[in-house]
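Hey, quick one: can you model this chain's 3D structure?
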Amino acid sequence: MSTTLILIFGLLIVAGTFASKISNKFGLPVLLVFLLIGMLAGTDGLNLIQLDDYAMTRDVANIALLFILFDSGFNTKKDSLKKYAGPSITLATLGVAITAVALGLLLHLLLRLELLYSLLIGAIISSTDAAAVMNIMRERPVKEHVSSTLEIESAANDPMAILLTTFMVNMVLQGGIPAPAEFGVLVAQLLWQFGGGILVALVLSRVAIWLFNRFRSANQSMYYVLYVGTVLSIFGVADLIKANGTIAVFFAGFWMGNGKFVFKRGLSHFISGISTFANMVVFLLLGLLVVPKSMVSVWGPGLILAAVLIFVARPLTVWLCTLFFKFSTRDRLFISWGGLKGAVPIILATYPAAAGLDGDGMIFNIVFFVVALSCLLQGGTLSFLASKLGLSIPPKVHSPYSLELFALDHTDIDVVDTLIHEESPLVGKRLMDLQLPHSMVISSIVRHGKLVSPRGATVLENNDIVFFMGNRREVEQVILSGGAEILVEGAACMLPVEHEPKEVVDEAMAIECEGMNLECERVTLE
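Sure thing. Here's the predicted structure for all 526 residues.
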């Protein structure tokens, strides 16, 4: 690989990163920006990079997909899953199958494609995109029952789509539906891939937690290395026993994300960063892989496929899968429109080409066209629709400051930051008058962008950002009873804790924000 190629690729990533700020203002998925930049830099654009290797792109995308799926599982909370498991998991499993079959049959009737190829395209494009959905929900939040259902569905439905696509590729390669005995073997293999993947995830997620808890390295970067090795190992073990590695990685992420282990919060930022980077690189590669002028020959079938998917298959799937759950017509309309497509369908679209089933690139180009249209049409109007349906809620305040514990052993101590509102009973009170539990302290206060060292006589003011240190549940009770607002986490810095503490450890902490490195020391409220 030449230095020029590395430079160009790096500049494209930087350009996409800054361009994403523009897309956020218009409510468009960031991934669309990287697709367009890839297309602009590719063969039909500026011709900066030439890419036509479907097999290589598939292999790179598959590796990236592991970290994307682990992040999806890691951020799927058990409490939300319990609360909204019924509709979200039904959509993520049965819903994917219904979408694939309905789309495949309609394509067969409307476009006169061979039935197996129609079902293959339906399987490829049957899943929704977690990154696109979550980014829009984060910027322009909607009511919890709708957002949680959409987010959990989009996080959990990729493995099912991957299984169905792999299954359909094998069916097409065999030239049709096999004999009953052979079909039974294929179904058994499909069930083992799903069940075996979950079994591997259950076992290896516990092994991973055990390893993290016993690693005890003062070098926090080594935990990131351990994470990468863990993800690759989980996939490798599952694949070795012919189970599905992507399912194993997703569920391992879920169990680890809902478990307790050393350096979990610090690792979560790295997991999110790697997943975001993987998403962007995949979309950049896929943008480079597509030849824009080839879209001319598929825009007709692409429009038909998109229309059938968005206005028929997806609504049908949502209505059937939520039939026995308490959703209003407005909720179902929004969930139907929220089925954004993203990286996974385009990655899966490389499978037929890599297997020699898409020599002219028709399947890849059609899927690419539909995904781009979905990002533009559905992604660009999702927030507007939420507002019109009365599902929008005010966005949470994001703190530009953050503290974090770097614990080398188990601890129930955490750092929670809160914004003090003008109407809060905490305003005007001295810290010594707050009557905090003995196990809780205020570690620091940020006021007007400057650090205020907390003392017993320090008076809380409107718009103060206050960092509480203690048991998270106790801290949240104090914050909410005081009428303040818990902030969304920002960047992180680390506080070394050498032993399992029952009290807050006397250590220096750093707040890192907006180019400043501010130091403060623990202060007791006396």
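One thing worth noting: The first helix runs from residue 3 to 25.
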